[in-house]
Amino acid sequence: MKNIAVMTSGGDAPGMNNAIRAVVRSAIYHGMGAYGIYYGYEGLVNDHIEPLTRQNVSRILNRGGTILGSARYPDFKQLDVQRHAANNLRRREIDGLIVIGGDGSYRGALALHEQGIQCIGLPGTIDNDIPSTDYTIGFYTALNTAVESIDKLRDTSFSHRRCSVVEVMGRHCGDLALYAGIAVGSEFIITPETGFKKQETLDAVRKSYLSNKRHAIVVATERIVNVHELAKEIESYTGYETRATVLGHVQRGGTPSAFDRVMATEMAEHAVGLLAAGIGGRAVGLRGKDLVDVPIETALTMEKTVTKKRYGLVGRLVE
Ligand code: ADP
Q1: Which end of the chain is more exposed for a tag (fewer CB within 10 A), N or C?
Q2: Known catalytic residue: 203?
């Protein structure tokens, strides 16, 4: 393979820059040229593609976001648009492409792979919703941000004897809420996996009030329940004055954690190794301590395993 390209697509995530850097440097190591595609599939279709040198990716290790930019571009579902994109790559003699993004971005990568471009998917999303990997690039950084923010909310909740209802991101995956709930000792979590059980939520918070706890925390994944409405219901049912906080996009930013930097670097290096060996159509992931790769189709169709025991931890350990 003579040249390979890298792009970031969908929602940005801390650690994407580490993956971009490792792609470029590994490509050079393997004797290949590296190109950056700006603003995801939209940039690819509009030919916004530029060579990347070792210097272009220096001093980005600690920067959140993505230096290549990202975009959502629904037109990429069209076959003629995909063909045009593949031709833009072929014209530059780019035979391999690494797409860093979520499952939508993987679908785009699969489509391009079917157009004859060797594509590799890297899981870049704070949502941890890619079943072919234990962790996605950005998840742990976003989790740390959420935990830090909830710790701060707890300080003020404690002072005022309040309940905090906190909405975190995650789309269809409850991992951010689950792990944050464990890390902050929340009374209750509401996730797509648990569903919203209103009475259980109210009872858990009321129990906390009746046992004289000075604060309570409920963590909810976005899009399941209106946290402002829920806060009102908790207030009238439990006795706690209750406030809702939506953490929002702060969870996407910030310097990537050491874990995300290392994982992103290793995954990217693995991806380039596959392309250098002429292998495409794979999605890279981490299983336990091992880097793995599976067909992109498999990554898109497999079920995400949920650790029931971990869900049981939330609430059970709250004194
Ligand atoms: P994420 O990659 O974070 O899941 P999206 O679902 O928004 O984010 O997908 C990112 C981009 O991937 C979309 O804007 C689109 O350009 C491309 N994409 C998504 N689904 C498909 C599909 N079925 N076929 C081709 N491209 C797709």
Answers
A1: C
A2: no
Q: Taking Cα atoms as reference points, which of 199, 202, 197, 233 lies closest to residue 216?
A: 202
> Is CATH 3.90.1640.10 correct for 3-138+256-301?
no
Residue nearest to atom 19 of ligand 1 (CA): 104
- Tell me if 101 CB under 6 Å of ligand 1: yes
Tally of CB atoms within 10 A around 204: 21
Pocket flag, ligand 1, residue 111 (CB < 6 Å): yes
CATH 3.40.50.460 boundaries in the chain = 139-252
> Where does CATH 3.40.50.450 sit in the chain?
3-138+256-301
Question: What pTM value is reported for the model?
Answer: 0.96
| pLDDT tens digits along 279-302 | 999 999 999 999 999 999 999 999
Q: pLDDT digit string (tens) for 204-224?
A: 999 999 999 999 999 999 999
| CATH number belonging to domain 139-252 | 3.40.50.460
The one-letter amino acid code at 219 reads V
